[in-house]
Amino acid sequence: MSDQARFGVLMANLGTPEAPTPEAVRTYLGEFLWDPRVIDISRPVWWAILNGFVLRTRPKKVAEAYASIWTEDGSPLMSVSLKQQRALKAELKARFGVDVPVALAMTYGKPSMEEAGLELRRAGVERIVVLPMYPQFSRSTTAAVFDRLAKALKPCPHLPELRMIRDFHDHPGYIKALANSVREHWQQLGKQGHLLMSYHGVPKRYAEEGDPYPRHCERTSALVAEELGLGPDEWTMTYQSRFGREEWLKPYTDEVLTAWGKEGREHVDVMCPAFSADCLETLEEIAMQNKEFFQDAGGGEYHYIPALNDRDDHVAMLASLVEQHTQGW
Ligand SMILES: C=CC1=C(C)c2cc3[nH]c(cc4nc(cc5[nH]c(cc1n2)c(C)c5CCC(=O)O)C(CCC(=O)O)=C4C)c(C)c3C=C
Ligand SMILES: [Fe+2]
Ligand SMILES: [Fe+2]
């Protein structure tokens, strides 16, 4: 028997700048925001706005935000993704009894889909299960992974067999891992506050055009609340990280937290179930910026509950997804 599985895993996430500098952030945003899956307005109009305004003004401010969360190991999104890759490989080896190649790819920047594809090809795999690290499907994230992979495969004369994990927003292992992370927070710091589940937003129009993302977020929230035995008054869901002038999914996280601060609420626990890995949008926007909005408005204790990152129960759930989607291989 061979000591390596006949399939490999392509773990995909968004991508992140290579350094917390305006130049590196400009390169990153230039690639990310030019993707029509992310911003779908007419190309000539968007080209003028992106290059004439966004990429001239935003990188400096955003680089400062990245600098505030940067670690010795680089961007948190990258360092956590590398840990997840290693942990998933170890968990799959334990389950399958053979090495299962796991390559990491980012939709934007490095490691690219081409690099990850080559890594899997060198490992001799002919079958690939694609694991976008987005529990809830959105055209702006999961579909962008699909497009980027298809682009990387364009020059190939022969394709690997592919299966794609579209979403896992209601997977029992995912819901349990989220609930466990909340329970652990309560064990350490006490169960006193309202639970806010804040999701990255998308333009409202995308949902009206058929993106199932808000339905998935609503279902995740309801299942987490049920698993924790929370009543309707004990939790709320909101959407964060608005970009541009269009209306996005509501309610907006920053507005809700500011209002709660004004009401003088004494304690809020915030978690971000759409983020598999801690990143700029959780560590800076939620754990720092929104904490300030809440407390400056008059709110009390504010706790951010970390993303699932490389927790054992998260990695076990990811391995179960791989097992489920490689049946028959
Ligand atoms: C969790 C799922 C995500 C969805 C859905 C999503 C949609 C979406 N995002 C933008 C614009 C930006 N997002 C930015 C950062 C960012 N977004 C996600 C995830 C989702 N985005 C992550 C994990 C990150 C963090 C990356 C990191 O390096 O840590 C940014 C960059 C920061 C900034 O300039 O504010 C932008 C821009 C749009 C327009 C969109 C849906 C249409
Ligand atoms: Fe985003
Ligand atoms: Fe708390």
Automatic annotation (TrEMBL):
**Reactions catalysed:** Fe-coproporphyrin III + 2 H(+) = coproporphyrin III + Fe(2+); heme b + 2 H(+) = protoporphyrin IX + Fe(2+)
Q: Where does this protein act, in terms of pathway?
A: Porphyrin-containing compound metabolism; protoheme biosynthesis; protoheme from protoporphyrin-IX: step 1/1
Record InterPro entries: Ferrochelatase, Ferrochelatase_AS, Ferrochelatase_C, Ferrochelatase_N
Q: Which residues bind Fe(2+)?
A: H200, E281
The record ties this protein, via PROSITE patterns, to: FERROCHELATASE (PS00534)
- Its EC number(s): 4.98.1.1
- Could you tell me the keywords of this UniProt record? Cytoplasm, Heme biosynthesis, Iron, Lyase, Metal-binding, Porphyrin biosynthesis
- Give the enzyme's main class according to its UniProt record, as a single word: lyase
Localization: Cytoplasm
What is the similarity comment for this entry?
Belongs to the ferrochelatase family.
Q: What job does the chain carry out?
A: Catalyzes the ferrous insertion into protoporphyrin IX.
Q: What protein is this chain from?
A: Ferrochelatase
